[in-house]
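User: Structure tokens for both sequences below?

Assistant:
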Amino acid sequence: MVPFSFAGETFEATASGALFWPAQRALLVADLHLEKASWFARLGQFLPPYDSHATLTALSAEVERSGAARLYCLGDSFHDAFGCDRLPATARTLLTELTSILDWTWIIGNHDPGFADHCGGRIADEVEIDGVILRHEARVGEQRPEISGHFHPKLRVNLKGRHVSRRCFVVSASKLIMPAFGALTGGLDAHHPEIMRSVGGDAAALVPVSDRLLRFPLAA
């Protein structure tokens, strides 16, 4: 985990796309998109049905590593409103174990509106903690510090002829957009106009690498 400051608070970013808030003992993740593969399977496009188990295994590791007592999922936790009902037994066991030991909050996203919790935890449209707003999608014009997901930002760079893509956090003075944590999620280029419009000027992409946090300025 690599520490950095945002909104006067210290956070720790991980290469997997999680964010730990030590002062709150809270782990934040966005866009798990659990049961995405089974959603596609219902449409006749068959994908390996292991995405939820892989995502929850990675999440469990981050919980153990951080020592978190609280967990906030910043929307699109399931790929659709009925994803929780389709969880395989092993994935459901992993999830219910986590929700039973953590103060767990599901924030609703655009993929899971109407999500009725059958896996533990509580549901909220958004949450405010010490003046910092946690919601799914950044709100243009929001003056309060805000942490969100939705865009799945990735930094794409060309290194000596090789195209490299990495999950990244996009930050400005008052906005922090998290990468997707899910195992079966794509990503939007961090330079994309929709991301830049959401965070405003003077934004940067943060890429955690080992014990360092690489910062890449993003031009509007």
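Moving on to the next sequence.
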Amino acid sequence: MIARVGPADGNVLITGENGTGKGLVAQALHAVSARAAKPFGSVNMGGLPEGAFKRQLFGHVRGAFTDAKSDCAGRFELADTGTLFLDEIGNIPLSQQAKIIRKIETGEFERVGSSRTFRANVRLVSATNSDLAAEVAAGKFRQDLLFRLNTIQLHLPPLRERREDIEVLVQYFLKQHVDRYRKPITGFDGSALDAMRAYPWPGNVRELDHSVERGVRMARAKCSAPPTSASTPHNPLRASSK
């Protein structure tokens, strides 16, 4: 789906639980698009203070507010000709949602403190773990904004529904962390892989990554099983090394 959707250049909405890798999918969409050589920007929409919302997205000019000592471009402008990833799009307050609609419709915006109109040509990739249709029905999310964001919608299943990915993922994470911590670890024994396939991974890929990292850090040089405790029964890693 990424290979098919990526080159299309339409706005994409990625849905899925926390930790499933929505940000990685956004980067993959950008990498296979015609914009791959252009900027890729990312902003956590749920983490923007309401007072800073507009200037973070659209920028500001010198003197627009206290401490605004110079002009500053916003996220849309910085991602011009490229892709802008709007993470946690479902957490935008209703009062702020209208400010994005005009930008999506016309490509135009004004920096805070200026009447000059700027244009930015960006492809929007958004992500949420919320049910936006339910949010629309509850009056918490604008339907017209949802229509503009989900030209194409990709759903990323939780890890418990794609257990065939677990072995591929743990080998990938193992290589990363072995290189980082310089441990002589070569793999996992069969019982460890069976345990990881059986575990439901409520934290999804993020939890799997952290568990592999913890296993690598705790593994002894001769590769006995890393210590576990009753408080962390979900760390079924048992690395093997030469």
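User: Anything stand out in the second?

Assistant: Residues 222-242 have pLDDT under 50 and may be disordered.
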